[in-house]
Specification:
Length: 883
């Protein structure tokens, strides 16, 4: 309300309130007209209209007041209430007081909205006739700002007011902002998942969930619940928050639906040749994408963790059953097994690592080794100075307790059916071991005549080399320290006993005494005994000796084939281990001052060493021809590592003579054909009592045939070459019945050398209705390893129909004792190794073929083959010598 003192001051009297109001109206003439119109139209309440009519009437009598005082008014621009928004600057608000007798001197402003200020205000006081409010609101709400006008500056004097300016400040609109982001999740099929997103904003935002960018109907809250999740629910989820100020999209939340692996493509089995590359492929689905691990025979393969498995340069040991295991967090799945069969490739030997030179101390053990590849597995033959070392047929050559005689050059020849290769030549050097002196050649007593020269000699070994001291009748001879001691111009005083003492760090030894007899007249040499001829086997020792007289004692020199033998100057000549190269004609030349004489020659014969190992000397097949057109074919291989030359073989087809053993239904008239490789080299129908054949029967120990007129068949071939041979037996004019096919090694034991070819394999392919018997005899002096196989199911791989489904194999010795038996061979490592060593074709690990490998002493054996439950079918029976 107006202060009466401030409004009336200067007019000399006080006016009633209606007069003051009227004066205010009269300060603006137009206002009077406006009020009059309100009254005339009845726009004001009746009481107010009556009061204003009275005031107007009074005003009519107060014209002087109207002209002097005017009308006082608080003016605000823009008019109150004033609307504003948080964060947005307002237009300046100007206020003042009009119509007063004088202008105000100051204002007090209070209760301003936060963020607004009064220009020039100090402690809320503005000096001046008007004021301005400006700024940017920082808080929402309705604020009543009070303005009190003062007559003078610094809020002094009379006042007008207080007056109110109303500010209506609304909050600023804010676009959505996410305070909680939905999280990426994984869930198993059939599970449930909840996605949550929260956004702030003014006004409060609305929500819409999206999957892979597409809106999900009805998903309009901040929480999305998915129950019984399926693979189709997997994807990228976002939440869109929207209000009038804008919209915001949450971070993407990836939902992964975990699905256990499923094998969608299985690996396929293969048959592959060694040296080729193997690739197996499998596929699998699953979420997350599965990891992979390949297995071979159930065992993980290191590094094989891709869907495609590759093995380069496949070898026999890579055969097996391969599977792929796919795994993720939901589980794992295993593919079907893929059976990989590896067939050996024929590859000539290749040396991968050569033997190396070696130096050893006498008495040590030395091993030379070579590393080679090849298929079939190659055979080895070590040589020293070009001469084959008996029994040295492995990839390593071990020499125990080496001595100086072992020094030399060594090499190894490696061979298989595809070729031969020889290693580099390496040298063995043997250094002596510390050893006390040993006298290897004693000084020899001598007889001489006056004036002759005599030399005594000694041979001594020892490490280090010993020093020597000659003695005469036990007294050291000054300066006589060599291996020889010469007495020149012999006189009577030189007759004595001479000896030598050898000394080194390991000890000393004295020689035997050698007597020097001095006589007057020289006598020319004469032989009292000449060397005698000898015949020995290589490796044996031999000694040749002579008896000789003469004065002085003659010097001797042995010769072979007329050539002197270095160092052979004694009455005896010894070879510790004679070799074929030592054979020849040996003689001795004796010389002294009276002349020279030569002994009669003695011939030394050195035969090759006999073969000491066991060997197959007889093979026989007892079976029957069951149809007129049936042919019994028996295959055999002549060979062996390190062998050379030809082999005498006796082959028989015995039918009628089986009757003497009580067998019935025999083949009445067998006929026989013998093949070397593909060439027929012999044939026989009836043996007709041939004397040469009968002699061969007796020499190999074959049973006699029933009579010279029996219609059995036989062939003796003394020069069968190394390699494949075969025997074909048929019945004459379609005859059928029981027959035995026999092969005998006719090489006499007395001349069977290490290089003599051997029977190393026999086989027969026959359809049986009950059983088949393969007989064999192992000769020699030591046990022999053999591989026997009865193959039925695997014959189908070669297109053979009607194969025996499940052959059973039993090996029986001569006493009827079972020494080995097998039903299903089972894929065992020793058998696989034996197959490779003899060059036999591979068998599938799960086939029902039968096989045994067994080491047998010399003797007679039978391998009996029958089908399960007496079943019939075609079967291949094989016998191999295992090196």
């Amino acid at each position: 309300m107006m202060s009466c003192r401030f409004s009336c001051r200067g007019y000399g009297r006080k006016l009633p309130v209606p007069a003051l109001l009227l004066i205010g109206l009269l300060q603006r003439t137009p206002a009077v007209h406006v009020v009059a119109r309100w009254i005339e139209r009845g726009s004001l309440p009746a009481a107010t209209s009556a009061w204003l009519r009275g005031a107007l009437a009074t005003a009519a009598t107060l014209g002087s007041i109207q002209s002097l005082a005017g009308a006082t008014q608080f003016v605000v621009s823009p008019a109150s209430p004033i609307s504003a928004t948080v964060g947005t600057a307002i237009s300046p608000v100007v206020f003042t007081v009009t119509g007063a007798a004088g202008v105000p001197g100051s204002y007090r402003v209070s209760n301003l909205p936060p963020g607004l200020t009064a220009a020039g205000a100090v402690n809320g006081v503005i000096n001046g006739f008007s004021g301005t409010i400006s700024g940017t609101p920082t808080a929402a709400g309705t604020f009543a700002t009070s303005v009190l006008a003062f007559q003078f500056a610094n809020a002094t004097g009379d006042t007008i007011g207080p007056n109110t300016i109303t500010f209506s400040i609304s909050a600023a609109n804010a676009p959505p902002v996410f305070t909680t982001q939905p999280a990426t999740q994984s869930v198993a099929v059939g599970g449930s998942v909840t996605l949550v997103g929260v956004a702030s904003g003014t006004p409060a935002p609305t929500y819409q969930w999206r999957k892979d960018g597409a809106a999900l109907p009805g998903a309009t809250t901040s929480t999305l619940v998915l129950a019984n999740v399926q693979p189709a629910d997997a994807g990228t989820y976002t939440l869109v928050a929207t209000n009038s100020a804008g919209s915001a999209t949450s971070n993407p939340a990836v939902l992964t639906v975990v699905v256990a692996p499923v094998i969608t493509g299985h690996p396929v089995g293969q048959t592959i040749t060694t040296g080729r590359d193997l690739t197996l492929t499998a596929t699998a689905s699953g979420t997350p994408a599965p990891t992979y691990q390949w297995l071979r025979n159930g065992a993980p393969i290191a590094g094989a963790t891709n869907a495609v498995f590759t093995r380069t340069n496949v070898q026999l040991f890579d055969a097996g059953t391969y599977q792929l295991v796919a795994t993720n967090s939901a589980g794992s799945a295993t593919s079907n097994g893929a059976v990989v069969t590896v067939v050996p490739a024929t590859v000539a030997p290749v040396i991968l690592q050569q033997p190396t030179n070696q130096t050893a101390v006498a008495g040590q053990t030395v091993t030379f080794s070579v590393l080679a590849s090849g298929s079939p597995l190659p055979a080895y033959s070590w040589k020293k100075e070009g001469v084959t070392i008996a029994g040295a047929t492995a990839a390593t050559l071990t020499l125990a307790n080496v001595q100086a005689g072992d020094e030399g050059r060594y090499a190894v020849t490696i061979a298989n059916s595809a070729g031969t290769v020889t290693s580099s030549t390496v040298t063995l050097v043997v250094t002596p071991a510390p050893a006390a002196p040993v006298i290897t050649a004693q000084p020899i007593s001598q007889s001489t005549t006056f004036g002759q020269n005599v030399t005594f000699s000694v041979a001594v070994t020892g490490t280090p080399g010993p020093t020597l001291q000659w003695r005469k009748d036990g007294i050291d001879i000054a300066g006589a320290t060599n291996s020889t001691f010469a007495v020149n111009n012999v006189q009577a005083g030189d007759a004595a006993t001479y000896s030598v003492v050898a000394t080194n760090a390991s000890g000393s030894v004295a020689s035997q005494g050698a007597a020097l007899a001095v006589s007057a007249a020289p006598v020319a040499p004469a032989f009292s005994a000449s060397p005698t001829a000898q015949s020995i086997t290589a490796g044996q020792p031999v000694t040749l000796a002579v008896g000789v007289t003469g004065v002085p004692s003659p010097a001797l020199q042995w010769t072979r084939d007329g050539r002197p033998i270095a160092g052979a100057t004694a009455a005896t000549f010894t070879l510790a281990s004679a070799q074929p190269s030592d054979a020849g004609s040996y003689a001795v030349t004796a010389t002294n001052v009276a002349g020279t004489a030569t002994s009669a020659a003695a011939v030394l014969t050195v035969d090759a060493p006999l073969y000491a190992g066991g060997r197959l000397v007889n093979l026989s097949i007892l079976t029957s021809l069951d149809s007129a057109d049936e042919v019994l074919t028996v295959g055999a291989v002549v060979g062996g590592a390190g062998t050379e030359g030809t082999k005498p073989l006796l082959v028989r087809a015995v039918g009628p003579s089986l009757a003497q053993f009580g067998l019935g239904n025999v083949l009445a008239d067998p006929q026989l054909e013998f093949f070397t490789a593909a060439t027929m080299t012999g044939a026989n129908d009836d043996w007709r009592g041939d004397a040469a054949l009968a002699d061969a029967f007796a020499r190999v120990g074959a049973f006699p045939l029933m009579a010279a007129t029996s219609r059995d068949a036989a062939i003796f071939d003394p020069t069968v070459r190394k390699g494949d041979t075969s025997v074909r037996i048929t019945g004459v004019r379609g005859a059928i019945g029981t027959v035995i096919a026999e092969l005998y090694d006719a090489t006499p034991n007395a001349v069977f050398a290490a290089t003599t070819p051997r029977l190393i394999n026999a086989s027969v392919l026959k359809r049986i209705s009950n059983s088949l018997t393969l007989g064999f005899v192992i000769g020699g002096a030591t046990p022999t390893a053999v591989l026997v196989r009865a193959i039925g199911p695997s014959l189908t791989d070669f297109g053979v129909a009607g194969a025996l489904a499940n052959p059973r194999l039993e090996v029986v010795d001569g006493s009827g004792r079972t020494v080995a038996a097998n039903d299903d061979w089972g894929g065992g490592g020793p058998l696989v190794d034996a197959f490779g060593r003899v060059g036999a074709f591979a068998l599938g690990a799960t086939t029902r073929d039968a096989a045994v490998v067994v080491t047998l002493p010399p003797g007679s054996y039978t391998a009996q083959v029958a089908g399960e439950g007496s079943a019939g079918g075609t079967v291949l029976v094989e016998l191999y010598e295992v090196p």
